Structure formats: structure tokens, C-alpha cells
Amino acid sequence: MHVPDGFIDAPTSAVTGVVAAGALAVSLRGARKELDERTAPLAGLVAAFIFAVQMLNFPVAAGTSGHLLGGALAAILVGPYTAVLCVSVVLLMQGVLFADGGLTALGVNITDMAIVTTLVSYAVFRALLAVLPRKRRSVTVASFVAALVSVPAAAVAFTLIYAIGGTTDVSIGKVATAMIGVHVLIGIGEAVITALTVGAVVAVRPDLVHGARGLRQRLQLRVNGALVDAPAPTAPVAARTSRRTLWVTGLVTSLVLAGFVSFYASASPDGLEKVAHDKGIDKEAKEHAAADSPLADYGVKDVSDARLSGGLAGVIGVGVTVVAGSAVFWALRRRRDADASPVNTGV
Predict the structure, then answer these.
(1) Could you tell me where the beta strands, DSSP code E, fall in 54-157?
(2) Is 83's pLDDT higher than 60?
(3) Count of domains observed in the chain
(4) Which pLDDT tens digit goes with each residue over 133-173?
(5) Is the CB of residue 88 less than 8 Å from the CB of residue 94?
(6) Around Cβ 66, how many Cβ atoms within 10 Å?
(7) Cα separation, 97 vs 101, whole angstroms
(8) Alpha-carbon distance 303 to 100, whole Å?
(9) What is the CATH number of the domain that holds 256?
(10) Does the residue 323 lie in any domain?
């Protein structure tokens, strides 16, 4: 659902840029409360994983494909504020390095793919957890539904933005019907990927999953025939999988997905591209400013072998994203630590 240059007029793009900048400022502040020494490395990895999985377009209908948006996945794993930053880092890397998503439309893409998906999915996720049993399985179920809803919500948001600032005279009703219809199908794929990923992390390190916090039930012991709450442990229980092992496993998985599996992804246009072509939205589309980038269109320039070119581009993308994301989140964590430290007054 990456919006290219030319789909949305300049004033509307500027307004969405202001909205995106404001949301990023709020998220930078909020993420300092969500991130700690355990979750900061995971946040950088989540950004890289989203980048990798977004390369895996899956078929959803005749001549149409879809890919992960990632807002729900990131919000549940690392928190909503950090999720906005995760997806924004991915969109920035894609736009600047890979000519995917217009640079003048960066505000539109952040608003639609990072902000809307995160807010909607996390609201749905929390609402479901409030009524579901307080079990780990409920986190996976809520993840599935939240991700499913987030994709058509993003389609609705794009339609509204296009209704305000679209550059072609197209029936908004037809655009809305086509966008929502195909993105409901894409949402199923998003839901499956999100639920499987969240479920896998919850199974080995539930303490690292932001959405699973507070669900652990207190251990009860039977004393003299009555159940009483056991004392809270003074030290964390040893995890089955260390943070380092989880991080390395996630990074290797991301590299394999982007560097190898992506070659077998669907070549059909994604939901927005298909609707844009069928409805004439793309009549004013402009060439990407980074079209001459050495990595444009997810291939390495001057590498003739398509499999090698795409694989190298995917590996480079994962590497750059994990470095950029990790740098941002480690800086936020250090800022949090600095704010928490007592001020030396010299007394």
C-alpha cells in the first residue's frame, strides 16, 4: 500500500506530513517509556523483520497480491509508540533506498501505514484482551483479529485522503469499494502472519511481548486445604530462550526471508497498485526521485542475475533497517536512563 508520488496533491501531502511529524514526536516521547534494556534490541529487530516480510507479496485474488503492513505486529510486540517508529523507519528506508513509496508521499504513507494501522489494531487488541480469558492463547487470538481489522482500516484512511487531495477525478465510492474489498482479503494474510509471529515469541519469551504484560496469573498454593497466593518471586524465572538467541534467530529469519524466500513472492501488483490501475488513480503518478538508486525496485544495480540481485538487495535492506532501527531505539533507551538518573546538584 505504498503510495507513490503524484497520487495525492501537494497541499494534502504537506498536511499529512505535519500529522506524521507530530505523531513521530509523540511516539519518540512515548517510546522512551516502553523501551528498556530488554525490549530496545527487539524493537530494532521488529523493524528489520517487517522490512523482510513486506518483500513477500502473497496472492489474494486474480492478478492481485498483498503484503504485511506491520502496524499490528509491532504494536503488540513492542508497544504502540514504538510501533509507529518501527514502521516509519521501514518506510523511510524503502522510500530513500529502494524507491518504494514516494518521497513527497512519505507523510501519507506514515499516516496510513504506521499511524492508522497501529492505533486501530492496538485499540482492537486491548478491547479483546479485556473480555478474553487472561491466557497467552488470548494474545494470539486478539493479535489475529487486530491485524485483520487494521488493513481495511488503512484502506479506508487512504480513501479519505484521496477524497481530499486526489489528483484525478475518480468516483470515491468506486475507489472505496475496490480498496476495502481487496484489503479485507489482504488483511487475512496480515492476520495469519501477525498471529503466527506473536504466538511464536509468546511461546518462548512472553515477558518480552508488550501485549502480553499483565496476563500472568499469580501462582496459588494450597495451605491447610485453602488456596493462597504464593509470594511474588524475587528474581525472574529463567527463560527457555535467551534474548540473544531470540534476537539472532529473528535476524537470521529476516535475512533468509528477504535474501532467499522473497524471490518466490508474487509478482502481481499489490492491492493499491491494482485498484489505482483499474480505476485510473495512477494517471498523475510521477517517477520516483530515487529511481536511479543502486537498490531501486529491490535489486542491486549492475547485477544481472535476478535471483542474486534481489537477494542481495533484501539482505542489504534488512541490515540497514536493523542498524537504523536499533540506533534509534538504543538512543531512546539511553535518554530514558538519563532522565531517570538523579541530577547531580553539587550538594
Answers:
(1) 58-61, 64-66
(2) yes
(3) 1
(4) 988 899 999 999 999 999 999 999 999 999 999 999 999 99
(5) no
(6) 27
(7) 10
(8) 19
(9) 1.10.1760.20
(10) yes
